[in-house]
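User: Predict the complex.
Assistant: Input components as received:
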Amino acid sequence: QVHLVESGGGVVQPGGSLTLSCAASGFTFGRYGMHWFRQAPGKGLEWVAFIWSLGDGHFYADSVKGRFTISRDNSRNTLWLQMNSLKPEDTAVYYCVKGSTGTTDPFDYWGQGILVTVSS
Amino acid sequence: DVVMTQSPLSLPVTLGQPASISCRSSQSLVHSDGNTYLNWFHQRPGQSPRRLIYKVSNRDSGVPDRFSGSGSGTDFTLKISRVEAEDVGVYYCMQGTHWPPWTFGQGTKVEIK
């Protein structure tokens, strides 16, 4: 059974940093691209970042480019999102989401989400 | 970026009656591989999104057959044949053809009258 468990959220001041983790289990983690999505309070869903299965490439939403870094360790079945220079508009629930192997259909499993609040 | 536009944004429905949500994209979602990567998600209050439909019309495992997806090119529809109480929440369409970024519609809130 696939499980994605996020951790590391909390309250941080504007300009601060935070690193989210996602522990994956129940599938061959190293074969799948992985995503982070987010949802601001009362708002819709927004894609944040993607990393290829081997960690050899990534993409970012324009809203976080240059401030966020996605990374992974396939030996530990773990995904991270390092968030720097945080802004109040980064306040959201962040979701770790299973991607594709290239031949499978992505977004079939989502974590429970973790709240990040950027406030002074 | 591909803009996804859903309508309506709010949908009051009567239990047992059908419901339909429209999703339009700013450009064709037909990929060069011939597939159309249009997904539908359902999010209940306080829960994570759940994928219902992938590639326009393929239902995920465990999704009741009262849910169906259709469409092509730039126009897509999610239909619920007979709404049940558990179907309340927000429905999102999302395109996975022209990425990055992967983009969502604004969401359609379904509630029981």
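The longest strand of chain A covers residues 18-25.
Let me know if you want any component modeled separately.
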